[in-house]
Amino acid sequence: MTNVLLLGAGGLAREVLSADLDGHRVVGILDDDPALRGELVGGVRVLGGLAHAAEYDADLVVCVGSGKARRAIVQRLADLGVRPDRYATVADRAVRIPQSCTVGSGSVLLAGAVLTADARLGDHVVLMPNVTITHDDVVADYATLAAGVSLGGGVHIGEAAYLGMNSSVRQTQTVGREAVVGMGSVVVADVPDGEVWAGVPARPLHIEEES
Fold first, then answer.
1. Cα(149)–Cα(48) distance, rounded to whole angstroms?
2. How far apart are the first and last CA of the chain?
3. What distances in angstroms separate CA 128 from CA 100, 119, 144, 184, 209, one per listed residue?
4. Which of 144, 148, 117 is nearest to 130 (CA)?
5. What is the pLDDT of residues 130-189, one digit of tens each?
6. What are residue 35's phi and psi, to 5 degrees?
7. How far is CA 83 from CA 53, 140, 151, 180, 194, in A?
8. Which residue, 119, 155, 39, is CA-closest to 107?
9. Helices and strands (H, E) in the chain, number of each type
10. Measured between alpha carbons, how far is residue 174 from residues 106, 127, 156, 177, 197 in Å?
11. Please, are residues 113 and 133 in contact by the beta-carbon 8 Å criterion?
12. pLDDT tens digits, residue range 82-107?
């Protein structure tokens, strides 16, 4: 059994604490909110801020919902000497990862997630409950797939992209780097980097910036 520390005390951390983890035991949480120091979150104590991660003899899991925020935390900790091999991949015991599939370090796979054949998940990817990853899908680092997302075969999800609850992507399509797909959307065309798409079928949303 490997000891792990969760980085971040929000909803994703509580999801991980509620999971039936295979081979990992959560021994503490680190969070930068001083009001949480010493408090229990999901029955596990908040030990201090994120800057203390290098001081503990435990593997790490970044439990922040935003992929861009996860990436920033990993970069920040790298500057403090935290090596990439310190990050654990955690999966609910019910998740089966076939031998033909690969999952990168620091990733989180919650209950009901399904991987079929020859899928590749990068580092620090989050699959919320009941996500379906089918043959030849590629999910890049820091991507987040919310509950109920389904990918057809040969889909590519870009770095730090976010797919909302119950959205789906047709086979061979690409969702670009840091793109966002709204919940319940059906993607039948490539989503460019950084764009926000929603609807059935999904189309780009033009969000006006405040002046």
1. 34
2. 53
3. 21, 17, 8, 15, 30
4. 148
5. 999 999 999 999 999 999 999 999 999 999 999 999 999 999 999 999 999 999 999 999
6. -70, -20
7. 11, 20, 32, 29, 29
8. 119
9. 2, 23
10. 23, 17, 5, 9, 12
11. yes
12. 999 999 999 999 998 999 999 999 99
β-bridge partners, 90: 108
Largest Cα–Cα separation, the chain? 53
Residue with the two structure tokens 């079928």: 201
**Cα–Cα distance for residue pair 12/65, rounded to 1 Å:** 6
Structure tokens at 96: 């089966």
Q: SS3 sequence, 172-202?
A: CCEECCCCEECCCCEECCCECCCCEEECCCC
- DSSP secondary structure letter of residue 155: -
Q: Pairing mode, if any, of strands 132-133 and 150-151?
A: parallel
